[in-house]
């Protein structure tokens, strides 16, 4: 999927892909392009640039032995963000017993945790994304028992989980940069991420691994750690911090900024 804002960028990216593919001796089965307009109402469906047009717009990919459904008809939200694969791999090694996956999207972290035997709770404002998450669990032969899906605002749900004395030993916090809830409340990650961290610490178990992740360029891992330390101090929780090495296929400044807050 090549996303672009003008024809010049499209041509540059397409030429770069072709050159890299030739060097790697690899040819993509299909290449789609997607125009990124300034206004949402100007969005158009992705266009097939090369490949077999008779193939379905949906497909299934495998990462580290785990299957995920993709839908290229949805453009940027095709179903799997590659800049999180190292964090998915780390979660697998942590083998949590209870995972809370907020802003769960298509629930890739829930799938990983479920395959290690964890109970999972996936939360997202998009019911359609959660339905795709359920399909991802089914793709991997995971039965529905022990896996909950809640269509709700994470900041509103977290206090309710705390009042019900629910506790988790792994929590995923990967919110969007901007969004607006069903109640009209505006979310802006620069202003509200610390509120989210504080709420998450209320449902963190005695030991808990919390992934902090954002695509906001102003919140790099150093800033995230500073915010996390302040929140941990408020909640009187001892913490350590783990930074993941940059993915080799994401240039500096691209991909999500991530940090693991290890509560103990």
- For the report, how would you describe the main beta sheet? 7 strands, mixed
* Proportion in β-strands: 25-35%
What is the helix content? Answer: 25-40%
**How many β-strands, per DSSP?**
14
Q: Taking all residues together, what is the mean pLDDT? A: 94
Low-confidence stretches: none
Radius of gyration: 19 Å
Structural class: alpha/beta
Q: What's the SSE pattern?
A: EHEEEEHEHEHEHEEEHEHEE
Helices, strands, pairings?
Layout: E1 2-4, H1 7-24, E2 30-35, E3 47-51, E4 58-63, E5 66-71, H2 85-94, E6 98-102, H3 108-115, E7 119-124, H4 127-139, E8 147-151, H5 154-163, E9 168-173, E10 178-180, E11 186-188, H6 189-202, E12 204-214, H7 221-235, E13 239-242, E14 257-263
Parallel strand pairs: 1-2, 6-7, 6-9, 7-8, 9-12
Antiparallel strand pairs: 2-3, 4-5, 10-11, 12-14, 13-14
Which key terms come to mind for this protein?
single chain, 264 residues, alpha/beta, 7-stranded mixed β-sheet, 3-stranded mixed β-sheet, 7 helices, 14 strands, 29% strand, globular
Structure overview:
- The protein is α/β, with parallel strands linked by helices.
- Helix content is 33%, strand content 29%.
- It has seven helices and 14 strands.
- The longest helix is centred in the N-terminal third of the chain and has 18 residues, at 7-24.
- The protein is globular and about 55 Å long.
Question: Quick recap of the structure?
Answer:
The protein is an alpha/beta fold.
């Amino acid at each position: 999927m090549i996303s672009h804002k003008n024809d010049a960028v499209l041509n540059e990216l397409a030429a770069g892909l072709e050159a890299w593919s030739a060097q790697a001796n690899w040819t993509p089965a299909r290449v789609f392009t997607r125009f990124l307009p300034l206004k949402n109402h100007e969005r158009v469906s992705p266009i097939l640039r090369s490949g077999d047009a008779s193939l379905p717009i949906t497909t299934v990919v495998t990462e580290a032995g785990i299957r995920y459904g993709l839908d290229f008809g949805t453009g940027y939200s095709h179903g799997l963000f590659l800049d999180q694969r190292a964090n998915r791999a780390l979660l697998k090694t942590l083998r949590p017993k209870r995972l809370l996956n907020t802003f769960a999207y298509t629930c890739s972290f829930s799938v990983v945790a479920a395959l290690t035997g964890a109970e999972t709770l996936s939360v997202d404002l998009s019911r359609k994304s959660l339905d795709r998450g359920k399909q991802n669990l089914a793709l991997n032969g995971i039965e529905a028992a022990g896996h909950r899906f809640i269509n709700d605002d994470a900041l509103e749900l977290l206090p309710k989980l705390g009042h019900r004395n629910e506790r988790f030993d792994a929590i995923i916090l990967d919110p969007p940069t901007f969004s607006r809830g069903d109640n009209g409340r505006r979310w802006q990650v620069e202003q509200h991420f610390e509120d989210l961290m504080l709420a998450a610490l209320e449902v963190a178990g005695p030991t808990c691994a919390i992934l902090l992740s954002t695509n906001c360029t102003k919140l790099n891992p150093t800033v995230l750690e500073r915010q996390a330390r302040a929140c941990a101090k408020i909640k009187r929780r001892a913490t350590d911090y783990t930074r993941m090495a940059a993915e080799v296929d994401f240039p500096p400044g691209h991909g999500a900024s991530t940090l693991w807050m290890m509560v103990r």
